[in-house]
Each structure stands twice: as structure tokens, then as C-alpha cells.
Amino acid sequence: MNARAQRRMFNEVKKNPRVSAKDLQTFLEHANISVDKSTICKTLNKNGVQGRTPRKKPLVSKNNIAAHLKYAKEHLNVPVVLWTDETKVELFRGNTQHCGEKRAQLATVSLTEK
């Protein structure tokens, strides 16, 4: 990717920071520049533009606020019941033995025994 294509790509990112790599690829193809998506991502990362997931919009509209308020008023005088169960919950891997090899950079989930 030449310097002119990079400037063109950075200007597009400055105009619209939420543009995807696929959209940038089609934008550059309109200018007769053929570039792979991974090259676009690497070029952006190298120049300090990291891909981030945008913050989700909270689902609080006037209808949701009214529904929450209605629910709270209906359940204002509901008695509080303490429920107990006999499930053994272990924090920080108490007494159980876990088998298996440790692999680098693999997210694993350990299951609790019931």
C-alpha cells in the first residue's frame, strides 16, 4: 500500500471513525487500489488507530422507564423470601482437582461440581 492510499484511508477513518475494514477495502477498490482487509488492519494498528468495540447504547427509552416504574410499583409490597439450596459453590478452585495441560492464551472455563 503506497503513501497516497494510506492518506486516503486515514482521511476516511477521520471522517467516520466507526468504518469497518471491509468498508475501507471497498472504498479503496473504487479508487482502483486492491488491498486485503488484514493489510488495512495492520496499517491502521501500526499508525495508532486500533479497532475498538463501541459502547452499547443503553436501552432506556420513555417506554422502558414507564414499564420499570410500573413493575416497581406493582411489586412494592411483595414479601421477601429467603431461598436456600444445598449446592456447594467453590470460589477460587477450592478442594477439587483439575486435570489437563495448561495451554498458553486459551480461555478455559472450569465447571463446578454439584
Automatic annotation (TrEMBL):
Pfam families: HTH_Tnp_Tc3_2. Residues 6-77 form the Transposase Tc1-like domain. InterPro entries: RNaseH_sf (IPR036397), Transposase_Tc1-like (IPR002492). GO terms for biological process: DNA integration; DNA transposition. GO terms for molecular function: DNA binding. This is Transposase Tc1-like domain-containing protein. The lineage of its organism: Eukaryota, Metazoa, Chordata, Craniata, Vertebrata.
